[in-house]
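Supplementary Text 2. Reproducibility record for the structural model of the 480-residue chain.

All settings were left at their defaults, and a single model was retained for analysis rather than an ensemble. We include the record here because the model underlies the residue-level annotations in Supplementary Table 4.
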Amino acid sequence: MCRLVVYCLLLFGFCPSSSALTLQEYLSQVAKNHPEILAIDATTGQYQADIQYADGAYDAKLEHNSFSRVTGYYDGLQAAQKFSKPLEAYNAEIFSEYRISAGDFPVYEQEYATLSGGEASVGVKLSLLQGRETDKNRTAMANARLKYKMWNEEAKLAQSEFYYSAILAYLDWAEALSYYHKIEQLVTVSLNRQAGIKTRVAEGDVAEIELLEFETRLLERQSALLAAERKVQGSLQKLRYYMHSAHLPDSQAMQSINASQIAWPKAFNEAIITSGPTKHPALTAKAHEMQVLKQKMRLAEVALLPKLDIEAKVARDIGSGPTSLQDTETKIGLYFSVPFERSQAKAKKSKTQFEISALEQKTNALQRSIDAKLQERLVNLSYAKRLHKMQEQQVILSRKLFEQEQRQFEFGSSDFFMLNNREADAFQAELKALTARINVYREALAILKINAVLDHAFIQQALTARVLNTDSQPGFETVP
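Retained model, structure tokens:
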């Protein structure tokens, strides 16, 4: 087993197996409790708590107050309990109260006096102008829900960035490992050929300088193999970050992968065709942010209105006592105020108008940016596919030239210099075709990133859907 395979097994703790780590198996491990995903979930919980806190403004409450004179001419004492429940509509509040008193009160405190059984009352308060349509509490509740929706879209963006980087790391590893195996094959063939050349030099069939030339090329290939191994090990470190060791599959081997057989999820191709800027989470988040500003504008406009509140209350005393307290009592009260100088309210409204205008322009700029980036990547994907086809054709031609040169060499009508050149050209063509193939995946992945569809839910759906091998993918033949 080669040194690279040993390194892979030691690094990841895998048991030897002939199967390679597929993209689906890799993503299934990445999606399991990664710290970045857990951090996003925890932040979601914070916004849910903000909603609960805002709703708390309409919690019912029970109040109690009492007093008793311990010295002085009067000995009156009173106790009262009040239950109140705020309502969203009309900035209203319903309440009920029970109070009871005993003893004597001075004239200026006769409102505390009750019959022997106490006084029970019910009432309602509401706003008729300022606060009728909206108020700080209702705005806070609406904003908490809108900010939660905004965060859900931002979470999709964060998840999409995370999975984009994770999949890109997989593609980098697949390319590096496939690259390494191709160089390894070339070095193995060269080592086998070296023995034959030495024999022919010893027999006098070829000059010793050709052996020296061959060994120089062999050393270059061995150096390239070492560099390729270093690149594979670097890409493995990235995979180690995404595939945290606590969830690594014991049965998967990292020892081999063929870039031409990457199982690309069908959902990825479908998302390139169906997704677009109109569904972009960033634009949806901007739409929710606009609603927050409109809520703020409504509150600023309401603040310019006069304050007119009304309160109605019905009270009934129970028990014995003065006849003046025995009838049912109905009260209606009004509170009215007009701010003559409304500089702060006007300033808030004006500022909010500018914020709305600025957000509209930012949203337009964002949509244009997404459109431009998307079109650029679609063009790149088109050229990447065309280049891949050309490189595949180049591989076929280079192989034929090498095979013909090898036959001529065997018949003695060619030399090692030409043979090595043909072999190097064929090898470079294979490497370029490999890179071109991976670049098609990279460009497709970049489109998914721009559209921000690589969120956690989409990845889970893609893992359960069927996959496509590269050679049968529509993505390699047609441009979405």
